[in-house]
Each structure stands twice: as structure tokens, then as C-alpha cells.
Design goal:
Layout lengths: L1 H9 L22 H4 L1 E8 L10 E9 L5 E8 L5 E10 L8 E5 L13 E8 L5 E5 L6 E5 L6 H13 L8 E2 L4
């Protein structure tokens, strides 16, 4: 066993029993997509390569389509003052599974048959009045804190950070989004 552990560590693999975040993530019990639809402001996120160009004013807008899918429009301000816009679609990860586990893609529709163009979008915490949400993935590489308003009071923000930390996310790496 010790030899396997050393080989795993040597190659950068960390066995699940050594990871602090090996406990499966739980999602919220239910989501009303009609209430979830609308504009959300990014309050904070874990760094990711597909948002490197964003300097602030990050929003996500969701619209329920007639086929049950959700149209997604992400926007952010660029360094030159322009706006970057990405349109995508979200669907249930499993038709028989929880409504809080979605898959989202921003690749062209023709590539939608390829499983790797779909990313996890799990709703991990949601205010009863849908005023804030924590979204992430089971691998804990991605995390977003979103709110209906561009500013979130400090007490609520701190509470959401603590929730994310308890879920095993590396909250010390969070980037707070400029939203003025």
C-alpha cells in the first residue's frame, strides 16, 4: 500500500482518502427554473481560463426554453471597455436525477453529441427567495457566487464563503468580481 501511495504522490495523484474534498457534493433539493431564470451578477469565482479576459461586470442571464432547456448568456467587461458575450444552453444532467444538477455547453450545437463539451453546473446553495446562489462542479475546480443584485451584503457573502469552504472548495483562491 505504501508503494502505491508513493507512486501516486510522485505522479501528482492524490488518493481520495487524502483529499479534504472527497465527500460527495450535495445539491439543493429542488429548483424552480422559472424563478431561477433572469439576470444574475457574479459576486466571486474561482479563477478559470475561460474568464481570464474578464475585468468585471460579469453577468449570467438564464431563459427557460419551450423544450425545457435553459438558454444561457454570459457577459463580462473586457480590458478595452468592450463586452465579451458567450451564448450557451443548459439541460438536466440526468432526466431522472436532481433538478439542481445541470450540464451546460457553449460549444456550437453541432458538437453537442460530444460529452466533453458539456460542463457541470450544480446548484449547491440557493436562497429561499432566489436572491443568491452558489454554483460549482463535483470536482471543485469551478465555483461561482451569484446574486440578483450587483452587490451582496458582507454578512451574506461571508456566510456563502463559509458554506463553500465546508463543501471543500479552495475559497482562499476566490476572486471577487468588480461590479460597480
Amino acid at each position: 500500500m505504501r508503494q502505491i501511495l508513493w507512486v501516486a504522490l510522485l505522479f501528482g495523484w492524490t488518493p481520495a482518502f487524502l483529499q479534504g474534498d472527497s465527500k460527495p457534493l450535495e445539491v439543493v433539493p429542488t429548483v424552480d427554473f422559472n424563478q431561477y431564470a433572469g439576470k444574475w451578477y457574479e459576486i466571486a469565482r474561482l479563477p478559470n481560463s475561460f474568464q481570464d479576459q474578464c475585468t468585471g461586470h460579469v453577468t449570467a442571464t438564464y431563459m427557460v426554453e419551450s423544450d425545457g432547456r435553459i438558454k444561457v448568456i454570459n457577459e463580462c467587461q473586457l480590458r478595452n471597455g468592450g463586452v465579451d458575450r458567450a451564448e450557451g444552453v443548459a439541460r438536466l444532467a440526468d432526466e431522472n436525477g436532481p433538478r439542481a444538477k445541470l450540464k451546460v455547453r457553449f460549444a456550437p450545437w453541432i458538437l453537442s453529441v460530444l460529452p466533453w463539451v458539456w460542463g457541470d453546473y450544480w446548484i449547491l446553495a440557493l436562497a429561499p427567495d432566489y436572491s443568491y446562489v452558489i454554483v460549482g462542479g463535483p470536482d471543485r475546480k469551478y465555483l461561482w457566487i451569484l446574486a440578483r443584485n450587483p452587490k451582496l451584503d458582507e454578512a451574506t457573502y461571508t456566510m456563502l464563503i463559509e458554506k463553500a469552504k465546508q463543501m471543500g472548495f479552495p475559497v482562499e483562491r476566490l476572486i471577487r468580481t468588480k461590479q460597480d
